[in-house]
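Reply to dn_fold:

You asked what the input looked like. This is it:
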Amino acid sequence: MTEAAALLSLQDLDLRLLKLASSLAKMPQQSRLKTIELARKKVAAELTGMHPQTLRVYEQKGLVTPGRSRGNTRLYSQSDIDRLNLISKLTDEGINLAGVVRILDMRERMLEREDELEELRRRVRELEDEVHEFKMRERITALARYESSNPEQVMRRLLLNGAPGDAPAEKDEA
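and this is what came back:
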């Protein structure tokens, strides 16, 4: 489907949804709920380009797990729609459902690993900050130990990245 055709399809879908919303406003509450539930199935089917029966088969095979309303109607989230679009793309490329299951599993595991990696990176940054803070406290504490030194000498040693006792003491000329 070309980009222009997809845009027209989305515009057509928007018009349908507007008409549906307009007609819903005129309906009694009970009829309105049933129509919304039906629209959800149809919208998911239209957004994915799949037949509603295909959506049910994919659910039975565990490829997608839509939510359910109180009336047990399938409710497809955006992530469900994205997943169905990926399944459609893979099957269009000739991959069978067993291969699709394997690819989806590997993709989910990869995303989990990426989340874990990001968490570990965050934790490393946090620990680096703690180590830096401990080093700064150590330097500040070391300053208090050498009160007899000239403050200028202590600062010079600190700036040279050494502890206050590391550099040889300068002789006072007085």
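Residues 31-39 have pLDDT under 50 and may be disordered.
Hope that clears it up.
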